[in-house]
Design goal:
The chain is mainly alpha-helical and about 250 residues long. It has a single domain, classed as Serine Threonine Protein Phosphatase 5, Tetratricopeptide repeat. The chain has 15 helices and no strands. The longest helix has 14 residues. The radius of gyration is 19 Å and the shape is globular. The N terminus and C terminus are likely disordered.
Length: about 250
């Protein structure tokens, strides 16, 4: 429907070519057609280097492929053009986070909050940020705001704070997942933070909306990238290993 509307608009106004390219690039990214998406977004940027949404969605695409340095470059350009957007500042925070620039990420998360965000639109990376900063109460609070409460929360956070406690907490988390106490979109991220390859592989959801793809390239997922099953996870999302891994880039 969106494609048909875009094409109809283009027939009426040829000047909309750039916007149609951006829309198409966005939809192709959701379909994990990475090369085709990149071609349309780059076409839009070639026609209009100042197109905010072209930079924004291209930054997302680059992060999905693990090219975090280039992703940061494009989202910085977006925030330069639109500095008071909570959405764009939140995305800039994630770009810094993936590059392990935690203080910069925190500053942008704070800026996004001042502009209206209670927390990140991507709660799993925000939990990762809180873990890196040792903010365990923040993790408990965030899970509660996501509608997840119960004894398993304390068990999970306890395992994050004290890795030696993780093994005994695994059955608690498994049971909570079976009972529907933990939202499905959190499963993969939780097992990554627990450094549990078997459960992470089993729970990986290849759909775009889980936002798990970027997490594949996080520093915390290095154990998973060394796992022989990792190439199969990439195939599920139509990806190949990028030339530059997230854990080798730190600006």
């Amino acid at each position: 429907m969106a494609r048909a509307s875009a094409q109809a608009a283009l027939q009426l106004d040829a000047d909309l070519t750039v916007d149609v390219d951006v829309l198409e690039g966005f939809m192709l990214m959701h379909q994990q057609q990475w090369l085709a998406s990149e071609q349309r977004l780059l076409s839009a940027l070639q026609q209009n280097p100042q197109h905010i949404l072209a930079h924004y969605w291209y930054s997302w695409l680059l992060s999905q492929r693990g090219d975090f340095a280039q992703a940061l470059s494009h989202i910085r350009e977006v925030v330069r053009m639109e500095p008071f957007s909570a959405v764009f500042n939140d995305r800039l925070a994630l770009a810094y986070l993936w590059l392990n620039q935690n203080e910069a990420a925190g500053e942008q998360y704070e800026m996004a909050g001042q502009l209206g965000y209670l927390e990140s639109t991507q709660p799993k990376p925000y939990i990762l940020y809180a873990l890196r900063m040792g903010k365990y109460d923040t993790i408990r609070s965030l899970l509660g705001r996501q509608g997840m409460t119960g004894a398993w929360v304390d068990s999970f956070v306890n395992g994050l704070q004290y890795p030696a406690e993780r093994a005994k907490n695994v059955p608690v988390l498994e049971n909570a997942m079976r009972n529907g106490e933990i939202l499905r979109i959190f499963w993969f991220g939780m097992w990554v933070l627990y450094q549990d390859a078997d459960h992470a592989v089993e729970s990986f959801d290849p759909s775009f909306l889980t936002q798990d793809i970027e997490l594949l390239w996080a520093a915390e997922a290095e154990f998973l990238r060394r796992d022989p099953r990792f190439p199969e996870l990439l195939k599920l999302v139509n990806l190949e290993p990028p030339a530059r891994r997230a854990d080798s880039v730190n600006e």
